[in-house]
Specification:
The chain contains 8 helices and 8 strands. With about 260 residues, the protein is an alpha+beta fold. The protein has one domain: Aminopeptidase. It has an 8-stranded mixed β-sheet, with helices on both faces. β5, α7 and β6 form a beta-alpha-beta unit. It is globular and about 45 Å long.
């Protein structure tokens, strides 16, 4: 059969435009499928498995393609690779609390000096860079989904952060305003700790929190991290360091505080 050149061109364009949608649809079905696996097996809440890993078992770290580890789920929250289509929710999550606690000095002023379109373009570049760089590390960034609500929070882990000892992990997180106080952030941090324990050589996870950031401190304590020091960081902020021993961590049950 001879392909019609115009139709063939349209078909190729449609394939390109639909690639992102197909990936998101695949992630959704992986999430649903894994939730059913948990229900059938009675697996303890929070055990880390990927949709692929649940089928083939644990593979050698050296041979593992990290992209196969998304999505990660405990049956309530799902961690997946960030995508440019998260843009609207990403923009909506930016509020005074996020800028106060997570942004470096000067970032807010530069951001607020942008036009709306410049802000959108800036955040889109950030999401695209996060999406493109997800792979073997040393940093992994995830969007956090619920079964009925996408991108309710963000979490990352970084094995090359200069604020923690070499080879150990720094964990950062942020939750969208309307989903705070419901336990989703601490669930996500626990999944990241499982990821680090099972897929990296890190022995500790560190969480650095401003001493006045009460909500973030609750998350650190809820996941079992222990305060080990207080110091003034390079921006003059008094900061607490919480550390969690990944190889000896025991999961706590009960409702989260964030």
């Amino acid at each position: 059969m001879v392909s019609h050149p115009v139709r063939e061109k349209r078909r190729r364009a449609s394939d390109v435009d639909g690639a992102g949608s197909r990936q998101r649809r695949d992630d959704y079905y992986h999430h649903r499928r894994y939730t059913r696996l948990i229900a059938r097996s009675g697996a303890a809440e929070g055990h880390l498995r990927s949709a692929i890993g649940a089928d083939v078992g644990v593979r050698s770290r050296d041979n593992l393609d990290m992209r196969s580890l998304v999505p990660l789920t405990d049956g309530v929250v799902t961690l997946r690779r960030q995508h440019p289509d998260d843009l609207e929710r990403h923009l909506a999550a930016v509020d005074d609390d996020q800028m106060r606690w997570l942004w470096d000095p000067g970032q807010r002023e530069r951001y607020e000096a942008m036009t709306t379109e410049e802000q959108r373009a800036h955040q889109l570049r950030c999401l695209q860079a996060s999406h493109d760089s997800f792979g073997p590390g040393p940093k992994w960034c995830w969007s956090v989904d619920l079964a009925d609500a996408p991108y309710v929070a963000y979490v990352d882990c970084d094995l090359a952060n200069d604020q923690v000892p070499p080879g150990e992990a720094n964990i950062s997180y942020a939750c969208s305003p309307q989903y705070r106080g419901r336990g989703f952030t601490s669930r996500s941090v626990r999944l990241v700790c499982d990821f680090l324990r099972l897929r990296t050589g890190a022995r500790e996870a560190h969480i650095l929190v401003d001493v006045e950031n009460a909500a973030s401190l609750r998350v650190a304590r809820k996941v079992g991290a222990v305060e080990v020091e207080t110091f003034v960081n390079e921006h003059g902020r008094t900061t607490t360091r919480h550390a969690l021993e990944l190889r000896r961590q025991s999961r706590k049950s009960g409702a989260d505080e964030r």
